[in-house]
Amino acid sequence: xxxxxxxxxxxxxxxxxxxxxxxxxxxxxxxxxxMGHFFKKPVTIQYPEQKREFSENYRGLHxxxxxxxxxxxxxxxxxxxxxxxxxxxxxxxxxxxxxxEHLYREEKYAAVYEINMLRCIFCGLCEEACPKExxxxxxxxxQSDYLRKxxxxxxxxxxxxxxxx
Amino acid sequence: MSTFYFIAFLSxxxxxxxxxxxxxxxxxxxxxxxxFTFTIHYILMNAQFLAIVNFIVYMGAILVLFLYTLMLIxxxxxxxxxxxxxxxxxxxxxxxxxxxxxxxxxxxxxxSAPVVLTNPNLGLVKNLGKVLFNEFLLxxxxxxxxxxxxxxxxxxxxTKDPKEPKATI
Amino acid sequence: xELAEIGIKFALVAIIFGISLVVAMYSTYAxxxxxxxxxxxxxxxxxxxxxxxxPLADGAKMFLKEEIIPTNATPFLFIVGPSxxxxxxxxxxxxxxxxxxxxxxGKTIPLQVTDINVGILYIFGVVSLGVYGVMIGGWAxxxxxxxxxxxxxxxxxxxxxxxxxxxIIALLLVTGTLxxxxxxxxxxxxxxxxxxxxxxxxxxxxxxxxxxxxxxxDLPECETELVGGYHTEYSSMKLGFYLFAEYINxxxxxAVMVTLYWGSYNYPGMDFMNELLGTTWGPLFGFAVMxxxxxxxxxxFMWVRWTIPRFRYxxxxxxxxxxxxxxxxxxxxxxxxVITFLK
Lengths: 165, 169, 343
Fold this sequence. Notes:
The structure holds three protein chains of three kinds.
Chain A: H1 18-22, H2 24-38, E1 63-64, H3 79-83, E2 89-95, E3 108-116, H4 125-129, E4 135-136, E5 152-153, H5 155-158
Antiparallel strand pairs in A: 1-4, 2-3, 3-5
Chain B: H1 2-20, H2 24-44, H3 48-72, H4 85-109, H5 125-134, H6 137-158
Chain C: H1 3-38, H2 54-64, H3 75-91, E1 102-104, E2 107-109, H4 119-140, H5 144-175, H6 180-186, H7 193-196, H8 198-211, H9 223-226, H10 236-260, H11 270-305, H12 313-342
Antiparallel strand pairs in C: 1-2
């Protein structure tokens, strides 16, 4: 059949010559290649001690952001939960009381904000949906654990540390 | 001497087990043990070379091949041929008569003279080699021809006739 | 035999036994570490400094694992299999000369458990017996993969035993003795047998790879086709015994190769060193040299394992029957002709 791309190469299969059939020179060659690797520096990154740098757009653990004055930005609008394809986010909204202005930016805030890390697929849609720029997937890899309930991360794990501490 | 009797008892014991074992694989394993006791017999007779050769050739090669073939055939209880009672009876009767004949003939022939070795170290490799290649050179070489003919026969049996159509799998 | 002599023999047996077990144990560690280095990795490094406690951890794990005997297995033979494998692996070291006679406190102690005059044949016999451990275990498991592995092991060992024996015959033409002690002595002062028998050595080396079931001839346990081969059904320390037996076999076959071909405990400048160190430390230094050579061979075994892919089964048989055996016979003929004309 005529080749469409004209990239077809007909390979000639030559019978092996004596040295190739003897197999020992090929073994010696292979052994020298592996010996070359024996003295190379290992490429291993020893994970818990050494960490590999993530790329710019890596999506890791979520963090709930604070604004420049250290107030929580989240207003518990629920858009992130709505956009979440895995339905990993749940939240309970509460009204800001008098004297809590330094804690929450808006009048409404999330009293409970939970993400189930076993459900989350780290797609980043919550990040895109958030009108207040409150949630970003800029964290680390989610830690392993033994119990399912320990993978439901609350505000204690999600909210960014306060600014001046 | 007591070692000899102990080992002799073991050889007979294991050879009885060889023929009485139900599973053929077990019977081969008993055969291996029997050959092992033979090896010890050779060592007791100071025939080291023969002992080791018995060890390598019989235990290490021939019986491995026996075991190999037995593992490949599926010998279940269902495939075991059931022999009628009359055949069994005839076999027992025949074997009994054979034994009587053997015992009576042995009795008639009288006690054989014990074999006395002129050289107690005949079994060592060097002495054995000298004897084999000087006194018994002709029988030795003839036996090698026998082995060669067996080998050629095996090759002939194994090669397929090119005229025959290939077996379809 | 005096009581003291028996005691010394027992101590020697215990020491050699201990050394082969420790070497086998650390071979598992070395295998993983060397594999890692060949693949630009780090290897086990968590248990202790550089991971040197890894074999202990592995051993403890093996002992603590659940022991499973399959319902349809033959229980007695299932246990006999690994026992036989490790037994035959261990008893082969009895005839290997580890050094010259050591003089300790006025007593001359040979560093060889027993110097029977058919030493090579003894090792050969024990090696040929080693296949029973694999075969019995594989058959008793009552598993298709195990059975296939056992069958492969049997046919492979028998095929390669022949060329191994033939390569040894050529060596015997050169040495004129079957005793390993004498062969070791004859190689004193650069008369290493590998110089006289290079082809025989290569044949022996290839067969040693096949007999120890090491890559590229590890078909009896190749994972891609047979799950685990003959030890598919084994768990706990029974599996450990099989794996252990493989490493002890590797150690013993390295020692045999060093003894037969690579000058045993002999090294250049040996007479000078013996005078310098005396009759106690000189032979012990020879032992260290031999041990070093053995370790080099073990390294070579591992080096080959991480370089050469596994043979296909028909290639294995072709190599054994159509290449190695004719080569070995040709080697015998050439050696015999050369010896008749030179002497």
